[in-house]
Each structure stands twice: as C-alpha cells, then as structure tokens.
C-alpha cells in the first residue's frame, strides 16, 4: 500500500467531540479551491477543505484538537469565536489595504528606507516594552548582570532594534549579537547607534544560511548566550502561494530554534515568538521547548501591536541541553523537504506526546486563547483594538479612543509608556533628531498601516505621525 503523508490522510469522523462538530456548518462548502485572505484553517472535519490546508484533517491534527477540546472550555470558546470571525465584516475590514497606485511600482518598502528609521524603531521599541511588561526578560537580564557581572544575548530578527535597545540599556556590561536580513534583501532598517555602542554586533544575513553555515568563532561567547530571542517571521503577502509561504515560515522558525538550543548556555533562557495553532508541527515546537526548559516560564500576548493576530511570546527558562534533540532540529532545517510532516519529539504516537506534554501546554496556551477570543469579540462588536495615530505619537489617550478602543489595550499602552519612562536613557527617537538621515522616501505604503494615510506635523523638535481617516 502506498505511503500517504499525514496531512493527506482522512480522519475518522467519530474521533471528533460534539463541540468541534457543532462549529462546522454547511457554509464551509463555499471555501474556494485557493485560499482567501484569511482561510478558515481552524475548522476541522470538512471533506471539502481548502487543499492547501488539508493537513488539518489529518489524524494527528484531529487528535490534538480532540485532546484540547475535551480538557479546555477556553479552547472550545476560541474555536467558535474564530469561526464567527472568519466571515465577520468588522474583522475583514481590519485587513483592508488601499489599492496600490502606479506610482508605487518599483518603490522601496517603507521599512527599508533609512529616512523612516525613527518611527519604525519607535513602534517596535514600544512592542518590545509591551513584551517585557508581560514576561520580564529585561528584569531577568538585570538580575543576571548583578549576580555574575555580565549578560550576553542573541537577537534573531533584531531590526529595527527594540528588544536590543532595551537590553543594552540595562547595563554597560550587557553585550549582544543580532541577525537580520539587510534592508535591500527584505529586512528592516535600524539605528546606527546600536552598533556604535561597541557592545552589539549586527549580522545582516539570511538566518537559514546562518543555521547551515554556523556563526563565526568570535561571535558566540564562551559557554553560550544567556538569552536567545527567536523573533523572525514573514508576512503572508511576501509569498503568492500559501503552502510555499507556510513552509518557508516553518523553516525560519525551526532554524532559529536550532540556533537558540545550540548556542544558549545550560540554565539559560529563550524568548520565542509562537503562533496559536493546532498544527502538528507547531504543537511539537512548543513541546520541544517545554521538554528542554525546566525553569519558570512566562507567557504574554502583546496588545499594543498585533492584538488580533495569533502571535504570542513565551520566555522559557532553565535550559537543559540535549544534543540529540538539537541534531534532529538541524537535520530538519538543512533538509530541502517540506517540514510539515517532520517529527521533532521522539514519542511513539501523537497520543503519547499529548499525554506527556499536553498538561504542561495548557497553562501556556489557555490565557492566550482567552485573550484572542476577547479581542475578536470586541472587534466584532464594532469597536477597535488599536489606538489612533495621535495617541500613539503623543503617549496620551484621546476621548474617542477611551470610548471605542478595548480597555485592555488602553491599559497595556499606559503600562508600556510607564515602562519606557523607566529606562536609563531616553530610547524613543524622532524623525527630526540629530544624526538621523533626512529626506523624502518614496515608499509603497506607510507603516504602521491601519487603512489610514499619514501626515507629519512638527511640534517643537519632534515630528508626530497623525492618522488621517
């Protein structure tokens, strides 16, 4: 009998609990042969599944959904909320973009122009501070410096430099290495002040090439890094084919995991961007990290940016190296084959994997399921999950945002503002600051984008970005 990959196997319908079946409707038959902007990838058991997400009907994926559904009411609510959000006009409106004009052809990306480094850096500095409020990675770095006199970190996907700036601000004895694509190759620009400190080395290269070829001998500190940050991801708009995009994203994620586990010292930490998903591969990624780290973990879903998305962050502590596990990851990364069916954890079956690691996963993912469900419910009610441009620029919440923006988002924004006020040196940059390149950048679209255009108004020595509906 010919081998059938897991993502093409048909799952028996009786494996699904009543709650999962109840979330499936006849409307699923209308899913086109090709993915729409947001495919309903979380719906299970549809025989007419979008072909590029057929893996969700595999026995392994169904087993994961059944296990979570039978043990978590939060998971069941998340499934139903995501199902309603798929066709909700308020949610769809969040992803609308103005049509590209003929003037945009051949224009540089907004985040690749050095003229835009200040607003880009400011945005991701706030995002980095939001993550720190949730997991406290900067505080742990400060404690490490106080106890042993030094701290080293590896920031994969560092540009434009928010997390790097916060860590370097802790103490003059903190040193770091960052990896990011060069702006002309698809990466972000970053301020020159990061390297001018003499405590940070920026490597502008493809992380897949770094994973295959390794770091220079003088880059990795003796004994390994105290902290590795796994933060590289790609936008779906970069790939025309959904399956090609998913495989590249998985390769990038696994490459960063392999580098982190190979170069973090025993007892060290990894701060990792995760995605809410019941995919077999991403569930295994979380399982690998929980299996290799035995310390106190922290999880957060930042709300000041990307509140609606599936992104969340976990700080894993107490690393226990396992060369065999790291070698398995490396073999998967260097392979040219798609990684969807890869086995990362040596368990006899998915059931054995879930029984061993599932109870440790629930405390990580349940708060994030609940938070994303809350955000989606808020948006579907006609409200907003993001502050206006004036509020983000001034640091003050206007009356309109007080009424229409999710209260949890407003609280998070104020916490981030307070967090940035506690840095040793002012870290926020402005377009008119000395040393920042000036000039007109003919970019395809402003960033951050919210369906609005952007004007500049000078107030004193700072330039505010004002959103114009």
TrEMBL record:
Ribosomal RNA methyltransferase FtsJ domain ranges (all copies): 151-313
GO term, biological process aspect, one: methylation
InterPro entries referenced in this protein's UniProt entry, alphabetically: RNA_MeTrfase_FtsJ_dom, SAM-dependent_MTases_sf
Give the protein name, as stated in the record: Ribosomal RNA methyltransferase FtsJ domain-containing protein
A GO molecular function for this record?
methyltransferase activity
Q: Which domain of life is it from?
A: Eukaryota
Among the Pfam families in the record, one is FtsJ
Taxonomic source organism: Plasmodiophora brassicae
